[in-house]
Amino acid sequence: MTILEINNLSKSYQPGNLAVRDVSLSIGQGECLGLVGESGCGKSTLARCVLGVEEMNDGTIAFNGLLLDKMNRQELRNYRRNIQTVFQNPTASLNPKLKIKDSLLDPYLQFHKELQLEHFTYTTKKAFVEQLLETVELPTELGDRYPHELSGGQKQRVTIARAISIEPKLIVLDEPTASLDVLSQGAILDLLVSLQKALGMSYLFISHDLAAVYQLSQRIAVMKDGELLDLFQREDIYGTSRHNYTKELISIF
Q: How many Cα atoms sit within 13 Å of 92 on the Cβ side?
C-alpha cells in the first residue's frame, strides 16, 4: 500500500533555476526509500516540500490518497502528525532550555486528543518518557538532563524518540548520521532498522552516503542537479541498467 506519492514535483527559488525538476516517487507502508546524491542536488528541498515547509511550483504530493495542497485544516493537522522528521544536527533540534523529558512530551501533548497509540502506552508523563528512552536504548535518568549534558549520539537518539512518540506513518530522516562519529553512525543506523521493524513505520532516508542508504533502504533513488536519475530495488544496485552517475557513486561505495 502506497502512503506517500509524489508526482512531477518541481521547485524553483529563482525563475528559470529549478532546485527540483519533475521528480516522481512513492513510498509504501513499512518501506524505507533511500534518496541519495551529492550536497546541493535537491534532496533536502524535496524533503521540505514533502513536509509542507516549501511550496511546490508544479506537481502534487498525496498522503493516503489526499492531495497536500487540497487538504482542509483538520486533514493538514493529521498530515503533520503522521509525518515527523529527524534532522542532521540534533543539537539544533532540541531546545537547550528544556529538559529531555519535556522535549519528548511535547509532540504527545500537542496531539494527544486525537492519538490512538498501538505501540506505546501513556499512563503518566514519567512512565511515557521512560518508555521512549528505553525504546531508543537510552538510560531513563537522561530524561532529567538538558541537551548540553548529552553526547551527539545520545541527542540524536532523543530526537528519534521524539519523532516516534506519536507513532507517525512516515519519518523523514534528513542526513541523520552526518554529524556523528563513525561508531555513533553505525549504532544509529542499527537502531533505525530495528525501530522500523518493531513499529512498522515508513522512512524517507536522505543521505549523501550510499553505504548508509544501502544498509537501511529497500529501494534507492538517486538525484543529481535536481533530477531523479535512477530508482531501483536495493538488490539491483549492481545491475547493468544502473545510470552512469549511480555507478560513480558505487565505485566509492
A: 7
Residue with the larger pLDDT of the pair 39 and 222: 222
Largest CA distance in the chain: 55
16-45 pLDDT per residue, tens: 789 999 999 999 999 999 999 998 899 999
**Taking each helix axis from N to C terminus, what angle separates 125-135 and 152-164, rounded to the nearest 10 degrees?**
120
Q: For residue range 37-62, what is the model confidence (pLDDT) as tens digits?
A: 998 899 999 999 999 999 999 999 99
The residue segments making up the domain with residue 178 are 2-251
Do 101 and 144 meet the contact criterion of CB atoms below 8 Å apart? yes
Q: Using CB atoms within 10 A of its CB, is residue 99 exposed (0-12), middle (13-18) or buried (19+)?
A: middle
User: How many CB atoms are closer than 10 A to CB 253?
Assistant: 14
Question: What does the radius of gyration of the chain's CA atoms come to, in whole angstroms?
Answer: 18
Q: For residues 151 and 180, what is the distance between their CA atoms, to the nearest angstrom?
A: 10
Q: What is the pTM of this model?
A: 0.95
CATH code, domain carrying 167 = 3.40.50.300
